[in-house]
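Hello Y.,

Per our agreement to keep a running log of every chain we model this quarter, I'm adding this entry. I've kept the format consistent with earlier entries: sequence first, then predicted structure.
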Amino acid sequence: MAIQRAIRRFTVEEYHRLGEVGVLLPNERVELIDGEIVQISPIGPRHAYVVDVLNRLFMERLGDRVAVRVQNPVQTDAYSEPQPDLALLRPPLKTYARRHPRARHTFLVVEVADSSVDSDRDDKLPHYARTGVREAWLIDLPGQAVEVYRKPASGAYRSVRRLARGESLSLDAFPDVRFAVDDLLG
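Predicted structure for the entry above:
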């Protein structure tokens, strides 16, 4: 006879409290996904460089049309507060001074993946779809490609495209602004 395991999921409020009382250390690299506290991979130099490049590109090309947040939380539901590498949000930025943005505030979340390609693709991207994030990009550094996820419905993205060097794309929310995959890969 199989033994049923009871799993205790944490809410975002409880997760914050764990940090306040010192159970989670300030420099600990974790995020809350579906009520589970998940360790985040260390940021290597290539990953950091590409995040910096993306931040600059988004700021230059989209300006005040978006609020750009780098490696900061987005509360996607009561049990999740992932920290995408970049989030393009509805402006103004000061809207998020007292509480983290929600999925409905996002134009785009970007995950830059070096060693975490599989977990980002298999865990984080489906989570974003389930919680209504309208568009997500996975920057696959080892594969030298950008995966574009759009049209969340029934817990999955209905549109998924993989773009290679030499191709270009735009955000669904801003089709007038193009980005070369070569630029996005750094």
